[in-house]
Write a structure and sequence with these properties.
Structural class of chain B: alpha/beta
Strand order of the largest sheet of chain A: 1-2
Number of strands of chain B: 11
Oligomer: heterodimer
Distance between the termini of chain B: 32 Å
CATH architecture of the largest domain in chain B: 3-Layer(aba) Sandwich
Distance between the termini of chain A: 13 Å
Largest interface: A-B, 47 and 52 residues
Structural class of chain A: mainly alpha
CATH class of the largest domain in chain B: Alpha Beta
Shape of chain A: globular
Number of helices of chain A: 25
Number of strands of chain A: 4
Helix content of chain A: 40-55%
Radius of gyration of chain B: 21 Å
Number of domains of chain B: 2
Order of helices and strands of chain B: EHHEEHEHHEEHHHEHEEEEHHH
Amino acid sequence: MSLNFYRRVAFGLSPHEKPDKDPLNWAINQLDTIPDLLWPGTIPTEKDLRKKYGEWVYGDREVLRKKFKNDKHAYRKAKDELRIKTGERYFELNEHAIRHFQTKYSKQPVFERFWLFWGNHFAISEKDFLAEFSTGPYQREIIRPNMVKTFEDMVQSVTTSWCMIHHLDNSESFGPNSKKGMEWGETINENHARELLELHTVSPNAGYTQEDVIQLAYIMTGWAHKWDRKNLETGDIWFDQEMHQKGDKIVLGVKYKNDAKRELAKVIHDLATHPICIKFVSTKLCRHFITDEPTDEMINPVIEAWNKSDGNLIEIHKAVITQAYKYNENTHKFHLPEIWLMQLSRMFDLNIPLSFEKMNYTFKSKPNNRQRQLSWILREIGHSPYRAKQPNGWSDLEVDWVSPELLLRRFWFASVELPMLVKSGNRSHGFILSCLKNNFEDHENMASLIDNFKFGTSDYDLGQKYGVICNLPGVLKI
Amino acid sequence: MNCTRRNFLIGGSTTLFLSGYFPKISFASMQKKNLIIISLRGGMDGLTAIPVIGDKRLKKLRKKLILEDVLNLNSDFGLHPKLEIFHKLWQKNQAAFVHATNIPYTGRSHFDGQNLMETGAHIPYKEKTGWLGRGLLASNIIGKGLAISLPMPLLLRGVPQNNNFFPSPDFVETKLIDQIYNEFKGEHNELIKSTLDTIRQRPLSMQIATDSDDRKKLALEAAKQLKDQSGPRVAVFDLDGFDTHAAQGGVDGAHADELEEVNKIVTILHENLGQAFDNTLILTLTEFGRTIKQNGGYGTEHGYGSAILMAGGLLKKSQVYTDWPGLKKKELFEGRDLNSTIDSRAVYNSAMSICFNQDPEFLRKEVFWGDELPDLSQELFKI
């Protein structure tokens, strides 16, 4: 088995790890339990961060905008101060640190790859201040615990999470015949219903109609944040009967009797166990771990495992890894920038993320450049993870990631930034050679490409070496 | 102005919905024509950029947002003072505006709206390619798109081999590419290899490192590339910050700052395109306009109808082209927004037909699914 399997399903091997005698077992054994988050620094709860979110929007919208309505300069200054005070500029950086610390040091790196996958399947795209305050804790507290349960469990949790409801506007969706809908002349907002069908479960392959979207939106009415004057839209999610559309609903030919808050769980059950949903999500999993255009032959065993286990994600993950192992030698998969960065960090033991002591924040001034570094790098290589532009998340296709500037950014990172992240004990040529040997069959060929610089240990020399190594076809992709 | 809907068409003609004309290929059209789109994300306020003059109702609803001294366009419309270059070009018949226009999207979500302004579709997220990309592909113009941004914008997707320019903070030694180029073997490495080719064939001026937050430098380079007869034919700029819920202000407010950015880009393009400016069209694109009424923070909320700012030598004449819907409460969309009486996609479709030498009917079918989009080429552009 090629060493590239460790990069196909994980992040490669760190200098302290050795290839396992049985790589398939090594990978499969990582999927039964949820590894602890290892970050030794602060890991705030979703609820705490939502409170901060509330302080920020309340302060801006209800206080500053009114106070400085005639003075854009004073307004901007006061707003900047509020950003600092509420951590608006900081929490996303901390989340990136938690995330990258995990993928770098986790003893279950294969589990972590699935964590990234599901975070992107149930993507929160860039909207309002979700990236700043909410997407990180959503992925930690909603996605992660469900990874040892069923797919249906995950859809239930995601669909009623504050983050997703805010992201897809379900709090603005009123049943037109509900008490509030009639009183206020409001109607449904279809966003969440459409994405639940299209992106999260059955996909357009199920052939649903606009009427199905409307009916599902009716079922979802009432699932909203609890609004109040102080917390505005950041209150907890509850079911507001007075927003809920009365009457029976029909989605994809199935009738759901008028049953208030219980309707949603029923329809999610049907969607999450729908054969087309199973095929759609299995295909996405295979696309992520095997190749951009997976064949039925690759996908079918995953579908079988899904059916056999009633959607148990542990079993599904194991089937995906088994397929990835089986097809490892003759398929190729391009790695998105963030995964590439995580792999370089693990394989070459780079100095990212910053130590937790240095990530400490006092809420008194802007985060410093070192604290911003990792997030800045992610942005510059084109893959700031919580800032996908659309609710369908980041594309998993090579064709969407290969543009002149996006490739140049990889050369930039590897040749200019990376040398500054090499630990002082790791600057020798021998260190690079040993990392290559640990991770690549053709390490000798790779080494020959940087032989000219074998005596160099300056930042420039390291840049020349890593600039070449990190952009070789076998590193950009499997 | 207190005119009401449909009692006149400024600069328009009665052939608006009857046009069946399409351009002949002449010698002049052999000259490369450039189409430049500037995306204004956040919702550009058409009434701030191109204010109606003397509308009492607007004055009443926007007490704190009325501009003190607008640049004069005609008896009905003025121009925001920060849009100086447009005023200068207006004198030479090289600036024009379409007013009370928008994509056919009446929801008020930035995300859905921006998706639709790029795909040109009716349902958010349904289409995965942009109208400009589809237009290029249908016209068989491949490898001629230039995005001034890091990701390839959705607007340009749908046609292969686009270039983008958004330099990294430091210089990248392209000799690194030479060292590994031959390692990209086999079919599965073709895409990367051909992209590396694109990089290697870049002119030196595109290999510089620069501050990509500095739009001036980017615009300067874009102009250089567009000027080149064998260079790109399409360029896409991305600006954001138009979502001014607070302190929107008048001559000097937050919206003015954003318009100033547009002004900067167009100024640089105009100065540096030289003769090529005569064969260029620059058009803005936004997801929606803003509410008529100012809000409690002296800003505005998400609305509907907006305006398109246009510049370039391919414009027919200086004009504010509109089918003005009026600003009385019953004339507003849902009683709160400037209405849209012209589907902005008709303007973009017509602009593509001019710049790509294509029959607008053909493009309408290939790009916009045969949607009812009148050909405005005769009214707006030099044919």
